[in-house]
Write a structure and sequence with these properties.
This protein has helices spanning 20-27, 64-75, 95-102, 119-124, 141-152, 200-218, 220-224; strands at residues 2-7, 32-37, 50-52, 60-62, 82-92, 106-111, 128-131, 185-186, 189-190. The protein is α/β, with parallel strands linked by helices. Bound molecules: adenine. Adenine is lined by residues 86-88, 112, 131-133, 135-137, 140, 143.
Length: 226
């Protein structure tokens, strides 16, 4: 899978993809992440990418030309399945959307800044808008990093048995069960006996029950979903 990311702050997106699972996914050639500096596509003085908004009001707006130039340049080399604008107005990111996106071949992400992008970009070039939560970030970069992380780990072949996504919280609309490691007793705090029993069927049943219990208690809304 290829994920291209358009940003005015490319440095902010250097580190998040250089560790752990995403690093390995790139080393295995299962994921290609390409960060593009929007300013490189500005034909204005000082590589300008934003301007005052029509109608007045505080805050700058990202201009149409650099974004249009950048996206059409990228499209001349790659056919994108989705062109996604990260925005608090977008569809709320969840595991279902992450699963769907992980099956795509090429995705382009556009990170907004300031007051956002000229509306005509959203109308004519963007195919999907995604929000990572009901709060406002200073820009789309951290949201893009979250999206790439959650999608990247789901790409077939990225996770091995040990890190399998099948037991993640949310994968089946359930939170993950509690986990423990050595020592089996610390400070008088003990690990549930069943986990030390070696009885794998009973352990699976216990884990499922705990997942359900935890979901009912903490996130009953998940159980009402489809
Ligand atoms: N940009 C600013 N806030 C955002 C959010 N909550 N999700 C995605 N992109 C954003």
């Amino acid at each position: 899978m290829r994920i291209d990311i358009i940003t005015v702050l490319p440095d902010l997106l250097q580190s998040p993809f250089q560790h752990s699972i995403l690093k390995r996914a790139q080393e295995k050639d299962l994921l290609h992440i390409n960060v593009i500096n929007l300013r490189d596509h500005s034909t204005f003085n000082h590589k300008q990418v934003d301007d005052y908004q029509f109608g007045g009001g505080a805050g700058m707006v990202m201009m149409i030309e650099p974004i249009f130039n950048c996206i059409t340049h990228l499209q001349s080399k790659t056919k994108y399945d989705e062109i996604i604008y990260l925005s608090p107005d977008g569809e709320l990111l969840d595991q279902k959307i992450a699963n769907q996106l992980s099956l795509k071949e090429n995705i382009l992400l556009l990170c907004g800044h300031y007051k956002g992008v000229d509306e005509r970009i959203r109308q004519h070039l963007i195919t999907k808008e995604i929000s990572i939560g009901n709060y406002v970030l200073s820009g789309g970069e951290l949201a893009a990093a979250v999206l790439v992380d959650t999608v990247g780990r789901l790409i077939p072949g990225v996770l091995n048995d040990e890190t399998s996504a099948l037991t993640d919280s949310f994968q089946d609309n359930l939170l993950a069960p509690p986990v423990y490691t050595r020592p089996s007793e610390f400070n008088g705090w003990i690990v549930p006996e069943i986990l030390l029993s070696g009885h794998s069927a009973k352990i699976s049943e216990w884990r499922y029950d705990k997942s359900l219990e935890r979901t009912k208690e903490r996130r009953p809304d998940l159980l009402k979903n489809d």
